[in-house]
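Components:
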Amino acid sequence: AQSVAQPEDQVNVAEGNPLTVKCTYSVSGNPYLFWYVQYPNRGLQFLLKYITGDNLVKGSYGFEAEFNKSQTSFHLKKPSALVSDSALYFCAVRDVRKGYQKVTFGTGTKLQVIP
Amino acid sequence: DVKVTQSSRYLVKRTGEKVFLECVQDMDHENMFWYRQDPGLGLRLIYFSYDVKMKEKGDIPEGYSVSREKKERFSLILESASTNQTSMYLCASSFPIQAERPYEQYFGPGTRLTVT
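Structure:
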């Protein structure tokens, strides 16, 4: 079965500094990986995905993620953090069974950007 | 823009009550999902549906059932609510695999259910 792990419950970063939110995955076959963000009191929003191609994927709000097959990682990054980036971030991986649209989510990482 | 709406933002029910959570999407998506979100546990899939009247159990279906009579509407039913079902419930929908943006899920704002 596929899974993702987010090793940090919370990440604190100063405004203007680069940020990284970590995610590692476990899947047989080619991984389809995703990042979602949840702002306070709102539903989740899709940020970006990796299916194939360039290992560096660009997404919404200036975020990008780096796919690393040898380290089975898909870390979320941003060069310069904003206070408004403070939110809960979820990594996810799709179900490998052909035809299934199900994805499995990680436990989430709370990002706190300090002014 | 895709819009996924849920019938209530906050709901308080008593133990043993039958509870209906409604979700409607306006993008003609085939796939719809119900999750519960709990601190430290992330999102866990309860049920999903890939077509009208079709459903599949997710990871934690016990104590829940679903109904999909129309393509745009997916209902989650708690047959007899219990305190351990106090949680945030999120509905989502997605395009079919053949579409341009497969697997991307669009979420509703959530329903925070408290069972007392």
